[in-house]
Amino acid sequence: MGTTANTGQSTWEQIHGGVRETERLIGQKNYNLAMVKARQTLEYMVKCLCERYGILETGLLEMIDALYSAGKISKTTCEHYHKIRTIGNKAIHEGDNSAYNANQAHHLLSQEVYTFANDYNDTKKSTRASRSAAPTPASSRLRGNSRHSSASSGNGKPAGTRSGSSEGRRPRAYAGGPSFEFRSIIKPVLLIIIIILLLLIIKMIRPATDAKPDSTAAVSTESLAPETEAETVAAESTVYRTTDTVNVRPEPSTDTDRIGVLAPDTDVEYLRDYDEKWAVISYNGQEAYVSRDFIRQVSQ
Asked: 210-254 pLDDT, tens per residue?
């Protein structure tokens, strides 16, 4: 039991460590190694699932398909596994260093690791429950001995044989019956009475509470209204404008193809800063990236 628990704990720690390492590499903008690490973590997790369910495939592609065919993972999980595997293969064999692909691999891996953790805990709980429910040989022998002793008396007579001592005990056993039945009835009756009393008390308190005017809420709403309007006006008066001709790109990298060009003194729909060099804007209904060096904030 101790060895199994330690193995499960180390497995979970290694998988969780792989997710953290992937996130760390993305933070360092080492996107290629982040995608490779995501694939390695996925492969370790898939191997653990195959060992648990007795699947003997060796390749990552074959193991994922075998888990799906056996009904051990859902269709969505199977698609996520293959997406992480494909992104990792592209990083390994083609040297891909795309920030978008790295973030997508990390997002899918985090989602599936959460699912894996829930399935692992459910399997461990069901295994413990089945072990505790299984009867031991010693308890079976004790039940057999009790049946044997109840079927016969100490003198070898059947249980149904009448004797003076058994007839003397019978009235006392019968006399205890009504007392047990009375206790079993009085408990639910008392519980019902307590619930009724509580409902009556609540009903008496609520009218007094409802009669009080909610002056605090009205004052709070009135006091917050000017601040909200001021914040809205301040937000609407801030505009970002290009200072020179700037290229619009689908990703925060000059290695990607541009999807548009903005002329100088063009108002842009600024969304947020991506990092120290790039800003995120809305361009033709989608998020795009421009250099922060070529836009400035203008107050109207």
From this structure: 555 555 544 444 454 555 554 544 444 468 889 899 899 999 988
Question: Given 85, 108, 129, which residue is the final one in a domain?
Answer: 129
| Res 43: pLDDT | 92
Give the pTM. 0.41
For residue 79, the SS3 value is helix
Helix (H, G, I), strand (E, B) or coil at 297: strand
C-alpha to C-alpha distance for 119 and 123, rounded to whole angstroms = 6
Answer yes or no: is 125 within a domain. Answer: yes
pLDDT value at residue 125: 57
**CATH number of the domain that residue 88 is part of:** 1.20.120.330
Contact criterion met (CB below 8 Å) for 26 and 103: yes
Per-residue pLDDT at 76: 94
- 207 lies in a domain? no
CB contact at 8 A, 289 and 251: yes
Tally the domains of the chain.
Answer: 2
Give helix then strand counts, H and E, for the chain.
9, 7
Amino acid at 277: K
| Direct distance between the N- and C-terminal alpha carbons of the chain, in angstroms, rounded to an integer | 70
Round to whole Å and give the CA distance between 214 and 96. 61
- Rounded to whole angstroms, the Cα distance separating 97 from 99 reads 6
CA 185/CA 188 separation, integer angstroms: 6
**What's the chain's length in residues?**
300
SS3 state of residue 81: helix
- Which domain does 53 fall in, by range? 2-129
Residues of the chain with pLDDT under 70: 1-9, 119-182, 207-238, 299-300
- Alpha-carbon gap, residue 258 to 280, rounded angstroms: 14
Last residue of a domain, one of 83, 101, 129: 129
91 within domain boundaries: yes
- From residue 217, give the alpha-carbon distance in Å to each of 49, 224, 229: 55, 11, 18
The answer to whether residue 162 sits within a structural domain is: no
